Amino acid sequence: MIKYIFRQNKDYSRFNIIKQFTKDLKLKNDIYILLPFSKNQFFLNFFKRDRIINDFFISNFDTYVYDRKKITAKNPRAWWKFFQDWFNFKFSKYLLSDTYTHFKYWESLFGKYKGELFVLPVLADKQIYYPLDKELNNKKIKILFYGSFIPLHGIDIILEAFSLMEKAGVDFEAKIIGTGQIYSNMKNLYEKLELKNVQMDGKFIDENQLAQEIREHDIILGIFGDSKKAKSVVPNKLYQAVASKKTIVTMYSEAIFEFFDEKDLIVCDRNASALCENLIKLMNNSNLLESTAENGYKKFLEIYDKTKIDFENFINKIDNEI
Protein backbone atom coordinates (compact mmCIF):
# COMPACT_ATOMS: atom_id res chain seq x y z
CA MET A 1 0.00 0.00 0.00
CA ILE A 2 0.99 3.65 -0.33
CA LYS A 3 2.42 5.21 2.82
CA TYR A 4 3.58 8.76 3.34
CA ILE A 5 6.72 10.13 4.97
CA PHE A 6 6.62 13.72 6.15
CA ARG A 7 7.96 16.08 8.78
CA GLN A 8 4.55 17.67 9.34
CA ASN A 9 1.22 16.43 8.01
CA LYS A 10 0.18 19.58 6.20
CA ASP A 11 -3.05 19.97 4.26
CA TYR A 12 -1.86 21.33 0.93
CA SER A 13 -2.89 20.89 -2.66
CA ARG A 14 -0.08 18.68 -4.02
CA PHE A 15 -0.48 16.15 -1.17
CA ASN A 16 -4.24 16.02 -1.73
CA ILE A 17 -3.80 15.42 -5.46
CA ILE A 18 -1.30 12.61 -4.86
CA LYS A 19 -3.74 10.99 -2.42
CA GLN A 20 -6.53 11.26 -5.00
CA PHE A 21 -4.31 9.69 -7.67
CA THR A 22 -3.24 6.74 -5.49
CA LYS A 23 -6.34 5.92 -3.42
CA ASP A 24 -7.49 3.05 -5.69
CA LEU A 25 -4.10 1.43 -6.25
CA LYS A 26 -3.79 -2.26 -5.29
CA LEU A 27 -0.14 -2.95 -4.47
CA LYS A 28 1.71 -6.05 -3.32
CA ASN A 29 4.28 -4.06 -1.35
CA ASP A 30 4.53 -0.98 0.80
CA ILE A 31 5.71 2.00 -1.25
CA TYR A 32 6.54 5.28 0.45
CA ILE A 33 6.08 8.79 -0.91
CA LEU A 34 8.36 11.32 0.76
CA LEU A 35 6.49 14.60 0.73
CA PRO A 36 8.01 18.01 -0.04
CA PHE A 37 9.47 20.09 2.80
CA SER A 38 10.50 16.85 4.57
CA LYS A 39 14.00 16.26 3.21
CA ASN A 40 15.40 15.55 6.70
CA GLN A 41 13.12 12.49 6.81
CA PHE A 42 15.11 10.90 3.98
CA PHE A 43 18.06 10.51 6.36
CA LEU A 44 15.84 8.73 8.90
CA ASN A 45 14.39 6.39 6.27
CA PHE A 46 17.53 5.95 4.18
CA PHE A 47 17.48 2.15 4.20
CA LYS A 48 13.99 2.13 2.68
CA ARG A 49 15.17 4.19 -0.27
CA ASP A 50 14.58 1.39 -2.81
CA ARG A 51 10.87 1.84 -2.20
CA ILE A 52 10.74 5.61 -1.54
CA ILE A 53 9.44 8.02 -4.17
CA ASN A 54 11.00 11.35 -3.22
CA ASP A 55 8.82 14.32 -4.20
CA PHE A 56 11.77 16.71 -4.34
CA PHE A 57 9.54 19.57 -5.58
CA ILE A 58 11.80 22.46 -4.53
CA SER A 59 15.42 22.90 -3.50
CA ASN A 60 15.67 24.34 0.01
CA PHE A 61 19.10 25.73 -0.84
CA ASP A 62 17.87 27.46 -3.99
CA THR A 63 14.77 28.78 -2.25
CA TYR A 64 16.64 30.44 0.62
CA VAL A 65 19.76 31.58 -1.25
CA TYR A 66 18.72 32.48 -4.80
CA ASP A 67 14.93 32.66 -4.91
CA ARG A 68 13.95 34.42 -1.67
CA LYS A 69 17.48 35.72 -0.97
CA LYS A 70 17.09 35.24 2.79
CA ILE A 71 20.66 34.01 3.31
CA THR A 72 23.87 34.01 1.27
CA ALA A 73 25.64 30.93 -0.05
CA LYS A 74 28.39 31.53 2.55
CA ASN A 75 26.00 31.20 5.48
CA PRO A 76 26.43 27.89 7.40
CA ARG A 77 22.64 27.41 7.19
CA ALA A 78 22.99 27.44 3.40
CA TRP A 79 25.66 24.72 3.60
CA TRP A 80 23.32 22.48 5.57
CA LYS A 81 20.44 23.10 3.18
CA PHE A 82 22.70 22.34 0.24
CA PHE A 83 23.80 19.07 1.85
CA GLN A 84 20.17 18.06 2.55
CA ASP A 85 19.22 18.74 -1.06
CA TRP A 86 22.32 17.06 -2.49
CA PHE A 87 21.88 13.94 -0.35
CA ASN A 88 18.19 13.59 -1.28
CA PHE A 89 18.93 14.18 -4.96
CA LYS A 90 22.01 11.96 -5.10
CA PHE A 91 20.63 8.90 -3.32
CA SER A 92 16.93 8.79 -4.23
CA LYS A 93 16.12 5.87 -6.49
CA TYR A 94 12.80 7.43 -7.55
CA LEU A 95 12.30 11.17 -7.86
CA LEU A 96 9.36 13.46 -8.64
CA SER A 97 9.71 16.92 -10.16
CA ASP A 98 7.07 19.43 -11.20
CA THR A 99 8.67 20.14 -14.60
CA TYR A 100 11.55 18.64 -16.54
CA THR A 101 13.10 22.12 -16.79
CA HIS A 102 13.12 22.38 -12.99
CA PHE A 103 14.73 18.93 -12.76
CA LYS A 104 17.52 19.99 -15.14
CA TYR A 105 18.11 23.06 -12.95
CA TRP A 106 18.52 20.77 -9.93
CA GLU A 107 21.08 18.75 -11.89
CA SER A 108 23.01 21.97 -12.52
CA LEU A 109 23.14 22.48 -8.73
CA PHE A 110 23.63 18.94 -7.42
CA GLY A 111 25.09 16.90 -10.28
CA LYS A 112 23.79 14.15 -12.55
CA TYR A 113 20.82 12.17 -11.25
CA LYS A 114 21.07 8.42 -11.86
CA GLY A 115 17.69 7.19 -10.63
CA GLU A 116 14.23 7.18 -12.24
CA LEU A 117 12.41 10.48 -12.71
CA PHE A 118 8.67 11.07 -12.99
CA VAL A 119 7.42 14.56 -13.84
CA LEU A 120 4.32 15.16 -11.74
CA PRO A 121 2.97 18.60 -12.68
CA VAL A 122 1.62 20.82 -9.92
CA LEU A 123 -1.99 20.61 -11.19
CA ALA A 124 -4.90 21.86 -9.07
CA ASP A 125 -7.39 20.17 -6.75
CA LYS A 126 -10.56 19.82 -8.85
CA GLN A 127 -12.69 19.63 -5.72
CA ILE A 128 -11.68 23.23 -4.92
CA TYR A 129 -10.85 24.82 -8.29
CA TYR A 130 -13.63 24.49 -10.87
CA PRO A 131 -15.52 26.78 -13.26
CA LEU A 132 -18.33 29.10 -12.28
CA ASP A 133 -21.72 27.49 -12.92
CA LYS A 134 -23.16 30.68 -14.39
CA GLU A 135 -22.02 33.39 -16.78
CA LEU A 136 -19.81 36.09 -15.28
CA ASN A 137 -21.10 39.62 -15.96
CA ASN A 138 -18.65 42.07 -14.42
CA LYS A 139 -19.25 45.72 -15.36
CA LYS A 140 -15.50 46.22 -15.61
CA ILE A 141 -12.80 43.67 -16.40
CA LYS A 142 -11.53 42.34 -13.08
CA ILE A 143 -7.90 41.26 -12.76
CA LEU A 144 -6.55 39.17 -9.88
CA PHE A 145 -3.11 38.40 -8.52
CA TYR A 146 -2.67 36.34 -5.38
CA GLY A 147 0.24 34.76 -3.57
CA SER A 148 3.06 35.28 -1.10
CA PHE A 149 5.03 38.49 -1.53
CA ILE A 150 8.32 36.92 -2.55
CA PRO A 151 10.77 37.85 -5.35
CA LEU A 152 9.63 34.83 -7.44
CA HIS A 153 6.32 36.54 -8.18
CA GLY A 154 7.62 39.81 -9.62
CA ILE A 155 4.88 41.90 -7.99
CA ASP A 156 6.73 45.11 -8.86
CA ILE A 157 6.20 44.31 -12.55
CA ILE A 158 2.48 43.83 -11.91
CA LEU A 159 2.09 47.11 -10.00
CA GLU A 160 3.99 49.05 -12.66
CA ALA A 161 1.82 47.51 -15.40
CA PHE A 162 -1.31 48.60 -13.54
CA SER A 163 0.16 52.11 -13.29
CA LEU A 164 0.69 52.21 -17.06
CA MET A 165 -2.89 51.07 -17.60
CA GLU A 166 -4.25 53.80 -15.33
CA LYS A 167 -2.15 56.45 -17.08
CA ALA A 168 -3.54 55.23 -20.41
CA GLY A 169 -7.07 55.69 -19.11
CA VAL A 170 -7.95 51.99 -19.14
CA ASP A 171 -11.09 51.19 -17.14
CA PHE A 172 -10.47 48.10 -14.97
CA GLU A 173 -10.53 46.77 -11.43
CA ALA A 174 -7.66 44.80 -9.90
CA LYS A 175 -7.10 43.01 -6.63
CA ILE A 176 -3.85 41.76 -5.11
CA ILE A 177 -4.27 39.20 -2.32
CA GLY A 178 -1.48 38.14 0.00
CA THR A 179 1.41 39.30 2.14
CA GLY A 180 4.92 38.12 2.98
CA GLN A 181 8.63 38.79 2.81
CA ILE A 182 8.63 41.88 0.58
CA TYR A 183 5.12 43.20 1.30
CA SER A 184 6.33 46.46 2.90
CA ASN A 185 8.49 47.23 -0.15
CA MET A 186 5.60 46.53 -2.51
CA LYS A 187 3.22 48.58 -0.35
CA ASN A 188 5.62 51.51 -0.65
CA LEU A 189 5.67 51.09 -4.44
CA TYR A 190 1.87 50.79 -4.51
CA GLU A 191 1.56 54.10 -2.63
CA LYS A 192 4.24 55.78 -4.74
CA LEU A 193 2.37 54.86 -7.94
CA GLU A 194 -0.87 56.22 -6.43
CA LEU A 195 -2.93 53.39 -7.89
CA LYS A 196 -6.65 54.10 -7.89
CA ASN A 197 -8.12 50.96 -9.47
CA VAL A 198 -6.10 48.42 -7.46
CA GLN A 199 -6.97 46.96 -4.05
CA MET A 200 -4.03 45.65 -1.99
CA ASP A 201 -4.51 45.23 1.75
CA GLY A 202 -1.93 42.61 2.74
CA LYS A 203 -4.38 39.92 3.78
CA PHE A 204 -4.43 36.17 3.21
CA ILE A 205 -7.67 34.27 2.71
CA ASP A 206 -8.39 30.55 2.94
CA GLU A 207 -8.24 28.33 -0.13
CA ASN A 208 -11.97 28.01 -0.66
CA GLN A 209 -12.38 31.79 -0.53
CA LEU A 210 -9.47 32.10 -2.94
CA ALA A 211 -11.09 29.71 -5.40
CA GLN A 212 -14.25 31.81 -5.32
CA GLU A 213 -12.23 34.98 -5.93
CA ILE A 214 -10.67 33.33 -9.00
CA ARG A 215 -14.11 32.41 -10.33
CA GLU A 216 -15.32 36.01 -9.86
CA HIS A 217 -12.44 37.59 -11.83
CA ASP A 218 -11.91 37.70 -15.60
CA ILE A 219 -8.11 37.55 -15.79
CA ILE A 220 -5.62 35.90 -13.42
CA LEU A 221 -1.96 36.91 -13.27
CA GLY A 222 0.90 34.43 -12.97
CA ILE A 223 4.52 35.11 -12.04
CA PHE A 224 7.06 37.63 -13.31
CA GLY A 225 10.17 36.95 -11.21
CA ASP A 226 13.74 36.91 -12.52
CA SER A 227 15.19 33.90 -10.68
CA LYS A 228 16.18 30.64 -12.34
CA LYS A 229 13.45 28.94 -10.35
CA ALA A 230 10.84 31.36 -11.70
CA LYS A 231 11.90 30.37 -15.21
CA SER A 232 11.85 26.64 -14.40
CA VAL A 233 8.39 26.13 -12.91
CA VAL A 234 4.72 26.24 -13.84
CA PRO A 235 3.21 27.98 -10.80
CA ASN A 236 0.25 26.77 -8.76
CA LYS A 237 -1.79 29.79 -9.78
CA LEU A 238 -1.55 28.89 -13.46
CA TYR A 239 -3.13 25.47 -12.91
CA GLN A 240 -5.67 26.89 -10.46
CA ALA A 241 -6.71 29.50 -13.03
CA VAL A 242 -7.13 27.11 -15.96
CA ALA A 243 -8.92 24.58 -13.71
CA SER A 244 -11.39 27.39 -13.00
CA LYS A 245 -11.69 28.16 -16.73
CA LYS A 246 -9.99 31.53 -16.43
CA THR A 247 -7.51 33.21 -18.75
CA ILE A 248 -4.09 33.57 -17.19
CA VAL A 249 -1.35 35.99 -18.22
CA THR A 250 2.15 35.06 -17.10
CA MET A 251 5.82 35.43 -17.93
CA TYR A 252 7.16 33.32 -20.79
CA SER A 253 9.15 30.25 -19.75
CA GLU A 254 10.17 27.03 -21.47
CA ALA A 255 8.65 25.03 -18.61
CA ILE A 256 5.10 26.17 -19.44
CA PHE A 257 5.33 24.69 -22.92
CA GLU A 258 6.16 21.25 -21.56
CA PHE A 259 2.40 21.04 -20.94
CA PHE A 260 0.57 23.91 -22.65
CA ASP A 261 0.25 25.42 -26.13
CA GLU A 262 0.12 29.10 -27.06
CA LYS A 263 -3.66 29.00 -27.45
CA ASP A 264 -4.12 27.80 -23.84
CA LEU A 265 -2.81 30.92 -22.06
CA ILE A 266 -1.20 34.32 -22.61
CA VAL A 267 2.55 34.68 -22.11
CA CYS A 268 4.58 37.87 -22.31
CA ASP A 269 8.05 39.24 -21.65
CA ARG A 270 9.02 40.06 -18.09
CA ASN A 271 8.42 43.81 -18.10
CA ALA A 272 5.58 46.14 -17.20
CA SER A 273 5.06 47.44 -20.75
CA ALA A 274 4.60 43.95 -22.19
CA LEU A 275 2.21 42.96 -19.41
CA CYS A 276 0.22 46.17 -19.82
CA GLU A 277 0.02 45.67 -23.58
CA ASN A 278 -1.21 42.09 -23.28
CA LEU A 279 -3.81 42.95 -20.64
CA ILE A 280 -5.23 45.76 -22.79
CA LYS A 281 -5.27 43.44 -25.80
CA LEU A 282 -7.31 40.88 -23.85
CA MET A 283 -9.67 43.51 -22.49
CA ASN A 284 -10.39 44.71 -26.02
CA ASN A 285 -10.96 41.24 -27.45
CA SER A 286 -13.68 39.28 -25.64
CA ASN A 287 -13.40 36.40 -28.12
CA LEU A 288 -9.71 35.95 -27.31
CA LEU A 289 -10.45 36.16 -23.59
CA GLU A 290 -13.15 33.50 -23.80
CA SER A 291 -11.38 31.14 -26.22
CA THR A 292 -8.15 31.22 -24.21
CA ALA A 293 -10.06 30.35 -21.02
CA GLU A 294 -11.88 27.51 -22.80
CA ASN A 295 -8.69 26.10 -24.36
CA GLY A 296 -6.80 26.30 -21.07
CA TYR A 297 -9.56 24.46 -19.24
CA LYS A 298 -9.68 21.65 -21.80
CA LYS A 299 -5.90 21.29 -21.69
CA PHE A 300 -5.94 21.16 -17.88
CA LEU A 301 -8.41 18.25 -17.93
CA GLU A 302 -6.23 16.42 -20.47
CA ILE A 303 -3.07 16.95 -18.40
CA TYR A 304 -4.85 15.89 -15.20
CA ASP A 305 -6.26 12.65 -16.62
CA LYS A 306 -3.04 11.68 -18.41
CA THR A 307 -0.92 12.37 -15.33
CA LYS A 308 -3.16 10.20 -13.15
CA ILE A 309 -2.80 7.22 -15.51
CA ASP A 310 0.96 7.70 -15.97
CA PHE A 311 1.54 8.08 -12.22
CA GLU A 312 -0.41 4.90 -11.47
CA ASN A 313 1.70 3.06 -14.06
CA PHE A 314 4.91 4.46 -12.56
CA ILE A 315 3.98 3.21 -9.08
CA ASN A 316 2.84 -0.18 -10.36
CA LYS A 317 6.18 -0.57 -12.15
CA ILE A 318 8.03 0.10 -8.89
CA ASP A 319 5.77 -2.39 -7.08
CA ASN A 320 6.63 -5.07 -9.63
CA GLU A 321 10.36 -4.39 -9.33
CA ILE A 322 10.46 -4.85 -5.53
Description:
The structure is a single chain. With 322 residues, the protein is α/β, with parallel strands linked by helices. Helices cover 43% and strands 14% of the residues. The protein contains eleven helices and eleven strands. The strands form two sheets. A six-stranded parallel beta sheet has the order 8-7-6-9-10-11, with helices on both faces. Strands 1-2-3-4-5 form a five-stranded parallel beta sheet. Helix 7 links the parallel strand 7 and strand 8. The protein is globular, with a radius of gyration of 20 Å. The model has no long low-confidence stretch (mean pLDDT 95).
What key attributes describe this structure?
322 residues; alpha/beta; six-stranded parallel beta sheet; five-stranded parallel beta sheet; 11 helices; 43% helix; 14% strand
Write the layout of secondary structure elements.
Layout: E1 2-5, H1 13-22, E2 31-34, H2 40-44, E3 52-55, H3 60-67, H4 76-91, E4 94-97, H5 100-110, E5 116-119, E6 141-146, H6 155-167, E7 172-177, H7 183-193, E8 198-200, H8 207-216, E9 219-221, H9 236-243, E10 247-251, E11 266-268, H10 272-283, H11 286-321
Parallel strand pairs: 1-2, 2-3, 3-4, 4-5, 6-7, 6-9, 7-8, 9-10, 10-11
